[in-house]
Write a structure and sequence with these properties.
Blueprint (H helix, E strand, L loop, with lengths): L1 H19 L6 E4 L2 H5 L3 H12 L6 E6 H6 L1 H14 L2 E7 L6 H4 L6 E4 L1 H5 L9 H12 L3 E5 L4 H10 L3 E3 L2
Parallel strand pairs: 1-2, 2-3, 3-4, 4-5, 5-6
Helix pairs in contact: 1-3
Amino acid sequence: VEIGAWVLREACNQCRRWYDAGHAIKVAVNVSAWQFARPDFVDTVQHALQTAGIPSALLELELTETVLMQEPAEATVELDRLRKMGVLVSIDDFGTGYSSLAYLQRLPIQSLKIDLSFVRSIPESEEIPPLILAITALAHGLKLDVLAEGVEKEYQARVLSSAGCNRVQGY
């Protein structure tokens, strides 16, 4: 938990340095289950943002679907508090856990991240795998952005763009 709080502070401080240099670069921070479960988690996020003095929209928190499904009612309350602060939230490694589609439509999140295991399955023939099409369609139907992780090849980026993926990141 202490390391997680330190990472959050450091990410916000780095974001501030970029912001001062004229670059409004959003930073994404993975959040552990233990960190998210703490009653003071949202306060910790707010303190890191205020201390760094960055706009809250430049911070994106990434939580796995497993973390969100452990206590979905409580998670929804905390996510709503973060959303009201202007912090973005993504579900990381989507499709590899045990998500409930009923909760997915109720959670105040802004994006889904396609797990790298799906990205690695993209054939060099550039055919779009059905699961990637399904995930992007689901996300867009819920008015969420889609980010794919583990994109290392140009053909993967092309396929994901064709499938409707909004953003990509490397491994």
